[in-house]
Amino acid sequence: MSRFPCPDKLLKLNQRFKIFTELAEDLSFLQEYPPRTHFSAKDNLCAVGFQARAGSRILEGYRPPFDATAIWRMRQEGAALLGKTNMDEFGFGTFCTNSGYDIPRNPFDEERACGGSSGGAAAATSLLEGHVALGVSTGGSISCPASFCGVIGLTPTYGRISRHGLIDYANSLDKIGLLVRDPLALRKWLPVISGPDPKDPTSCVQPALVTSGRRVERVAVPKEATENLSSGVESQFARSLASLQEEHGILVEEVSMPSLRFALSAYYVLATSEASTNLARYCGMRFGVRNLDISQHFNDFFAETRSANFGTEAKRRILLGTYARMVGFRDRYYMKALAVRQLVIAEYKKMFQDFDLVLTPTMPFIAPHFAEIERMRPLEAYQADFLTVPPNLAGLPHLSLPCGYSDSMPVGMQLVAPHWEERLLLDIADRWTSKFKMRFPEVSA
Amino acid sequence: MRIGLEVHVQLPTRSKLFCSCSTSAEEPNSSICPTCLGFPGSRPAINRKALEMAVQIARFLQCRIAPEIWFSRKTYFYPDLPKHFQITQYDSPVGVDGHFMVEGKSIGIWRVHVEEDPGRIKRVGRSGEEVSLIDYNRSGIPLVEIVTAPDLSSPDEARIFLTELLVELRHIIGTSAGDEQSVRADANISMGEERVEVKNVQGLRNLERALKFEANRQQRMLESGMKVVRETRRFDEERKVTLSAREKEFEEDYGYIGEPDLGVYDLTRFASSMPEIETPLRRAQRMSAHYVVDYEKARQIVLTSMALADLFEAIAKRVDPEVAMNWTLGPISNNWSQLLPRLTEQVVEDVVTVVQQVVDRQITDSEGRRRIGAIAVGECAQDVSCAVEDALLDSIISQYLDEHPQVLKDYASNPRSANSVIGHVMKVAQGKYNSQEVVEAVRKEIERRKG
Amino acid sequence: MDIETVRKVARVARLKLTPDEEKEFARDLEEVLTYFSLLDEAPRVDTHDFNPVRVADVLREDDPARDVNAEKLRDSMDTYQDMVRGPRLS
After folding, report:
1. What is the pLDDT of residues A32-80, one digit of tens each?
2. What domains are there in chain C, each with its CATH number?
3. Does B252 lie in the same domain as B342?
4. Residue pair A283/A305 in contact by the 8 Å Cβ criterion
5. Last residue of a domain, which of B272, B289, B307?
6. Active-site annotation holder among A40, A56, A99, A117
7. Residue of A nearest to C38 (CA)
8. For residue A1, is pLDDT > 60?
9. Does residue B240 sit within a domain?
10. Pair A424, A356: CB distance under 8 Å
11. Considering B213, B238, B272, which residue would you say is the last residue of a domain?
12. Does the predicted TM-score (pTM) go above 0.95?
């Protein structure tokens, strides 16, 4: 599709791929000259003039009275908000199949998933040239869809981007980031959305963003990350390692990071614990779906609205998270998970003493078919995150780069940098894409 | 009987604990924002002043101040709690293991911590079917929670404890005396084996009523051989009785987790940058000990005003403290409302000088009082006409004694001969002096002549 | 995980589950929690770090301010005489 799609084509595209849950009412800006960068925001980001439903029925009709800081900053810089993209409910999903609204289709193959939970964002970026998508990652929700849809996904350090106006999944894990086709867009827009915001205290401890001054020279590949991969991913990843060494002169070394094996459980315990408290507010009062039957006792009033409007995965995670914090279990799960996070961070810090980046494939397989996903047990779906979860748990900035194609589907590799060192990721993105030929879906809308 | 209290005091900050909404609002739901309404996408940012006040309170109560604190989410479902979790301090209170003296007895303070207030619920409708109307102005107001050991042994003692505590706290955090609105307490009261909790009692008067009612109720039960059941009760303000709070149909498991949006706070550095504040009752104790004066009188002074205490101490440094006390509680207090706004260093000095002059007998008691009054209304105390009047009194007395030498002769055997002098002065001066000081002056002159 | 526990957790979380849901979630939770027991092998460290980077001493000055119009907020909720309507209490 051309750089500036005309509104008609865009609507047709959306009907086919279910990218946007809501498009801007007035799309005429697409044909303005000089053109503005068009961007999208995942539907858990609040924007005045749009609903914010976070993929959930329980927020049907919610029109936020304020802008998320990241969106406000993009708009201040002249970018135009095209629409809100489809996502897994509240971010709960690896494939973007848990939405209370539409399920986006992979632009490379409509029978396959986009990846989650920022599925719509990745689809938009893949299909629309020059598009910048704001995504959100908790356990890998920018990397995974970027990998499945063949685009670049940058997840900055936790605390780099203000979360004011982000509908929370897990406050110690959520990070806003960017999905783009061209690394230049990262360099342009990352500084725009970064920086302290008094409305989000966790964004106020960051050192200033630096975008140059260091070069990637040595990269570590943990052997724990090269097991349980599909043969397609395995071979594409191996080719990429060779390319990094031969074409880019980067030293690649195999290492061992034993505490990575705890990361997935720690992540799901912390994420669901926090999520179960964040979702307590959805109860039929004040915003979103309203329960008008106030003659019900408040416990029934709340339980009824929640049960009728939360999807299955949301309920599952609420139950898990509630359990992990309960008296008698809290020590074993919640408190232990906190300790494991520190362990994983320490393991990475040790690696970064000798290496600039840690490198793994992004996902263990290419985008699965919808039919396959339906057959998966919940635990299977969670375990698909085993590569993206560790840097997310540790709050480290990471980048998913398209690095190959298998069965005509994109394969991604994930690079992890130390806290606050996004510049290393910008460096590798520039250098990699100067040689790697990215493919985009052939689509006539 | 053992009574323990969990006292919630609203902090008089200008903005709320986690958002910038004003804490003073008139109309319902007029001081609200996405944060204190718990809207999706909102998040907390803590008020520095609230934390300062909490540290001051904990320090005053002799608590051990935590070096580092954080906040926790206490999750439960009730219509007045917007996020369905309250941000509070579960395992990280600002201070622990303190105490507060009440009439010579030490009441243990287990902990002091900070938390946010929920909204205010109004129950409307028929009893048993009430629905809720909620005002979120109160949602997010900063609270300090003070938890005592069950060291209070009667409702009266609890009332005195809370009254004294609030006097001190008011000085530290600067509230005006609106305790009925800004203080709530949960009380744990047990006469025998089991503990009953009376929750959410608003204001001191209601607390006293609730405790007295509950103590009575338990007493009567025990006397008639019944067992007191361990339970939670609430106080009905209108009927002035405690009632069993309905059994919770659903369970609550607060499921505490840390609040990641706020992070941690280094209190050691924070506390060291704040000066210690001397509170009224502490000051009264110090003044009583240091100047060897009656504690009750010292207390009366500080409760009137700390500035009055300053003035007392200034005077007590120059004259006998008892005298200083009499003047402070007497003429100075009588003129206090006018004197207070005028209290400059010079005015203080003038007042001290007046008292000193009376003590040195340079002026009469009466003149001293008149001068204090003059200073209070801004007149010059050193009024020449008054000095003249003093001299005038003396000269009237002298003249009469000169003309009536018999008075002096008779005085030795009959002191009442002085009455004629007194009567004469009163007639001639036409009410310019009060009888007390005339008697004084006459006696003084007679003694002087005889001696 | 037994059905009773699922019911209890659902009550605490204010979720009304059908009997089928109860069975299904019991099975799901059992599988996931078994996997979580991997955590038992990790060393125990006492920490009160709730964030992956240290967030410390971020304070806001006590200055009242208003970004969003209170009246608009009030209008977006279900109110009666400016008070927000809520469900039955007893």
Report:
1. 888 899 999 999 999 999 999 999 999 999 999 999 999 999 999 999 9
2. 3-41 (1.10.20)
3. no
4. yes
5. B272
6. A117
7. A262
8. no
9. no
10. yes
11. B272
12. no
Put simply, whether B67 touches C (Cβ < 8 Å) is no
Specify whether B166 is located in the same domain as B49. Answer: yes
pLDDT score of A40? 98
**Cα(C90)–Cα(C87) distance, integer angstroms:** 9
Task: Decide if A141 is catalytic.
Answer: yes
Nearest to B139 by CA among B21, B255, B54, B26: B21
Angle value at C-alpha B194, between B190 and B199, nearest 5 degrees: 60
Q: Residue C48: its chain B contacts at CB < 8 A?
A: 68, 70, 91-92, 258, 264
**Residue A9: active-site member:** no
Chain B CB contacts of C67 under 8 Å are 20, 33
For residue B362, what are its two tokens? 């340079």
Residue of C14, C51, C77, C85 to mutate when probing chain A, most A C-beta within 10 A:
C14
C48-78: per-residue pLDDT in tens? 899 999 999 999 999 999 999 999 999 999 9
The token pair that represents A188 in the structure block: 């342009």
Task: Assess whether B324 and B430 both reside in one domain.
Answer: yes
Structural domains present in chain A:
7-257+343-435 (3.90.1300.10), 260-342 (no CATH)
Q: Give the rounded distance of the alpha carbon of A183 from its chain centre.
A: 17
Q: Are residues B162 and B290 in the same domain?
A: no
Residue B340 within a domain: yes
Same domain? B263 vs B284: no
Please count the residue pairs, one from chain B and one from chain C, whose beta carbons lie less than 8 angstroms apart: 143
Q: Is the ipTM of this complex over 0.90?
A: yes
Q: Which domain holds residue B436?
A: 280-450
Q: What pLDDT was estimated at residue B249?
A: 47
| pLDDT surpasses 50 at B384 | no
| Among chain B residues, CA nearest to C74 | B29
Cβ within 8 Å of residue A311, ≥6 positions away: A56, A57, A89, A92, A98, A99, A100
C-beta atoms of B259 and C82 within 8 A: no
As a whole number of angstroms, the distance between CA A399 and CA A391 comes to: 10
User: Do B45 and A198 make contact, defined as CB atoms within 8 angstroms?
Assistant: yes
Least confident range from A56-60, A427-431, B348-352: namely: B348-352
